[in-house]
Amino acid sequence: MSIRQKYFSNIRGDFVGGLTAAIVALPIALAFGVATGMGAKAGLYGAILAGFFAALFGGTPGQVTGPTGPMSVVVAGLVAEHTGKPEIIFASVIVGGILQIVLGKFKAGQLIQYFPYPVVSGFMTGIGVIIFVVEINPFFGLKARGDVLSAFEDIPLIFSQTNPHAVIVGAITLAAIYLIPFVNKLIKVALPASLIALILGTAASIMMDLKLPRIGDIPEGLPMPHLPAISLTDMHLVLHGAAALAILGAIDSLLTS
Fold first, then answer.
1. Dihedral angle, C-alpha 219, 224, 229, 235, nearest 10 °
2. Whether pTM exceeds 0.70
3. Helix (H) or strand (E) holding 231
């Protein structure tokens, strides 16, 4: 097989697949970035770099690399635990990725066959509940909190500090996400529900001049990489977070496959 046949035989499918993945991943990346407490730009940068390196070093035909709920929940916990120390969070993510490579080299993924289905179901359901809880307050216009306990503590504030404009936009967005799949079945077209919901909600907030907390400006270009300065006394914190990210990332990928 020639180089052209090997790398360019499915250029149209690669382009369409990449474009579709980018469209779907954009709103998810922004949402998970905010949910982690590191901001929308962190989710956007993460989606770009994760997709780039997955394509560069090889992935799997059955998956698209991008932000996921389980990993966002763990990162949110790290952000809440190490507030003001982004170098620990960054180092944990890097070391966690290295550990995942080691797990892959040793073919540790074969152990997934021993997982009971109730464990898998409980795992994914638990992650869904966590994401739901931390998003309740932002839906009503309150400040997002990354960990579940803090989110529960703020729930009583809903009764006194609810932003009606936030509820309107949230309801429009939520309705679009659930109704667009039914429209797709009627018109026989696969419209990206999450992206359309993002556009509709944003357009409604602008045209109706609603007073809402917004993401704000996202810096242009990519941040300049630099190695974090980690002291030996903080290494146990890095390894603890890295182990959680690596194991959860591996399990999440295997369950998705």
1. 80
2. no
3. none
